[in-house]
Amino acid sequence: MADKRVLTGVRGLDEMLGGGFVPGSMALVRGAPGTGKTSLALQFLIDGATKHNEPGLLISFEEFPSSLHRDAESLGWDLQGIVADGRLHLMFTSPEVFLASLESPDSRLNQLILEANIKRLVLDSVSHFDRLTDDEQKLRGIYTSVVNGLRREGITAMLLGEKGRADYRYAFKGGLSFLVDSIILLRYVEIESTMQRAIVVLKMRGSNHVKEIRRYEIGTGGLKVLGVFEGREGILSGMPYRALS
Fold first, then answer.
1. H helices of the chain, where?
2. Residue 210 burial (CB < 10 Å; 0-12/13-18/19+)?
3. Cα torsion at 184, 236, 163, 157 (round to 10°)?
């Protein structure tokens, strides 16, 4: 059981993660708008629900159901059907209500987690907690409550976060980067006047992981991780250049 991993369903990413996520761990997925964070999250949930008998829950502070269904359909997934048969659940709420629900055993959230036997959860997005307070200590307390509340349920969770800076070393306000178990960064890269996508696992607690920066594509079936960026340096800095031979 110690070797059991939670597969993401993304070709190439599970290899980068050393076989998948550690069960019960918290993963932060950072990226600018349009890099595919929601697509990755849906792929993670749908793979668990349809292939591994692991019911999932997506909690959104910003998307509408119609938007999610449309995005899933464009990638070849019948999200509506998976939700209809109870393998995947969608919840649309606010950060304030979500936090209160975590602390209440009788809340709709906790009852759903228990009754539906939720194993995978996506929170979209944790960046919304930033507007609740300007106090770093209070924000850290919020993030700690979120991470500990999900860990208490034994859920493997993917937390989506907006990345607003080119510096990949930038840490989330409130110390979220230190609270989570793994960090995956998605970003756009301009190479020879064309936009490409790059993915890297920045951190993975308690497990080895591939540290290469790899290309990825988004199409029918979701994300697919490709090979490394050959002959390029400075990919994550936003200013890639040819490596000196």
1. 13-16, 37-51, 65-74, 79-84, 95-103, 108-115, 136-152, 176-179
2. middle
3. 0
Longest dimension (CA), the chain: 62
CB 236 within 8 A of CB 184: no
Could you give the CA distance from residue 90 to residue 38 in angstroms, rounded to a whole number? 13
Q: Summarize pLDDT for 5-23 with one digit per residue, the tens.
A: 999 999 899 999 999 999 9
Q: Output the CA–CA distances (angstroms, integers) from residue 2 to 22, 71, 153, 203, in the order listed.
A: 9, 35, 18, 20
The pLDDT of 48-60, averaged and rounded, is: 97
d(C-alpha 144, C-alpha 16), whole Å: 27
Distance (Å) of CA 189 to CA 12, 81, 99, 233: 19, 35, 35, 11
The reported pLDDT for the residue numbered 174 is 74
Tell whether the model's pLDDT for residue 177 goes beyond 60: yes
CB 186 within 8 A of CB 30: yes
Reported pTM: 0.91
Q: How far is CA 158 from the centre of its chain?
A: 4
CB 173 within 8 A of CB 42: no
Identify the structural domains of the chain with CATH numbers, from first to last.
13-185 (3.40.50.300)
pLDDT tens-digit map of 146-173: 999 999 999 999 999 987 544 455 456 6
Q: Which amino acid is at 81?
A: G
For the ranges 86-95, 119-128, 191-200, 235-244, the lowest mean pLDDT is seen at 235-244
Q: Map 192-220 to HEC letters.
A: CCEEEEEEEEEEECCCCCCCCCEEEEEEC
